[in-house]
Amino acid sequence: MLKDLVRDKYLYLLLLPGMLFIIVFKYIPMYGLVIAFQEYNILQGVGGSDWVGFYQFEKLFTMLDFTNVFKNTLIISTLKLIWGFPAPIVLALLLNEVKQLVFQRFVQTVVYLPHFISWVIFSGIIIIFLNPVDGLVNQVMGWFGGAPIDFLIEKSYFRSILVATDIYKEVGWGTIIYLAAISGINPQLYEAAIVDGAGRFRQMWNITLPSIRHVIVILFILSLGNILDAGFLQTLLLYNPLVMDVADIIDTYVYRKGIVDASYSLGAAAGVFKSVIALILVAASNQLAKRFGEEGLW
Predict the structure, then answer these.
(1) How far apart are CA 298 and CA 293, in angstroms?
(2) I need a surface site. Which of 26, 65, 69, 192 has the fewest CB within 10 A?
(3) For the residues of 271-286, what is the DSSP string, one character each?
(4) How are the residues of the chain apportioned to helix, strand and coil, as percentages rounded to the nearest 5?
(5) What is the distance between the alpha carbons of residues 51 and 139, in angstroms, rounded to a whole number?
(6) Considering only CA atoms, which of 88, 92, 115 is closest in space to residue 104?
(7) 7-36 burial, b for 16+ CB within 10 Å, e for fewer?
(8) Which residues contact 14 (CB under 8 A, 6 or more apart)?
(9) Average pLDDT in the 161-184 region?
(10) Of 77, 107, 102, 82, which is closest to residue 92 (Cα–Cα)?
(11) In three state form, how does the secondary structure of 145-168 look?
(12) How many CB atoms lie within 10 A of CB 283?
């Protein structure tokens, strides 16, 4: 091991910042999870607070509002997974078919840009566009005789807005890995397919998709691990009391209980519950992928 460290010292040096980030912001904060099993008192600290075992979890699961919060989280996350996961795959396949390199790079740049805009700014843009008085969406609807709609206070529209805006913001960034995987496909496969008379769609279906299948499976497993991450900042910045019934998710619930209401132990219990579910989903999907002959994460 020492020989490897000396030989590859510069590679390990490049790895160091990432490792420090994970240790400082991921592993060290895990010590604070113990407050989920305490009646945490900020004056007594973690070491001096009373231990209550699983009382916070029992209290959490018997609260009526948490049942609704968990349901909202599952619905929003599942919708984002169903519609959002295939979107970058489809976009990468379409971009791969563009033969004009300048146009392809222009499109890539345009669809990447929203990823680099923070949700604070992006949510402001969404609010302006959906404004019922002078928003662009309502203006366009007005041209066709439609009545103005305040989308952000309508329960029937709010979840769709969350899903659509999340896809629009992240779809371009998600294509990077798929385009990289597609670029590694042997060109001779396409040449052989052309000789056999295969069209562009048949080449895409029989060559491109099977060749990037292992990448799709791995990213799908990682997506399942984040299925309860319904988008904290996005939801917090866009929701309001009128749509709370359909928009409140676990992350916003933890924020309200743990920070706003100062119920630190209850908020921590909700966070631990979400993390355990994510761990189970990742482990189960990884084993399922291996059972079907695909490469898993481990």
Answers:
(1) 13
(2) 26
(3) HHHHHHHHHHHHHHHH
(4) 80, 0, 20
(5) 58
(6) 92
(7) eeeeeeeeeeeeeeeeeeeeeeeeeeebbb
(8) none
(9) 90
(10) 107
(11) CCCCCCHHHCHHHHHHHHHHHHHH
(12) 16
Return the DSSP state at 33: G
| 16-57 pLDDT tens trace | 999 999 999 989 988 888 988 988 888 888 888 889 888 888
Query: Which pTM was predicted?
Result: 0.82
Q: What is the mean pLDDT of residues 224-247?
A: 85
> How many Å apart are CA 130 and CA 126, to the nearest integer?
6
The pLDDT score that the predictor gives to residue 297 is: 64
What number of CA atoms fall less than 13 Å from residue 74's CA on the CB side? 8
Look at residue 98 in the predicted model and tell me its pLDDT: 84
Ramachandran angles phi, psi of 50, nearest 5° = -75, 140
- Residues 6+ away with beta carbon under 8 Å from 189: 207, 211
Assigned token pair, 155: 């329960």
Half-sphere exposure at residue 180, Cβ-oriented, CA atoms within 13 angstroms: 7
pLDDT of residue 121: 93
Helix (H, G, I), strand (E, B) or coil at 62: coil
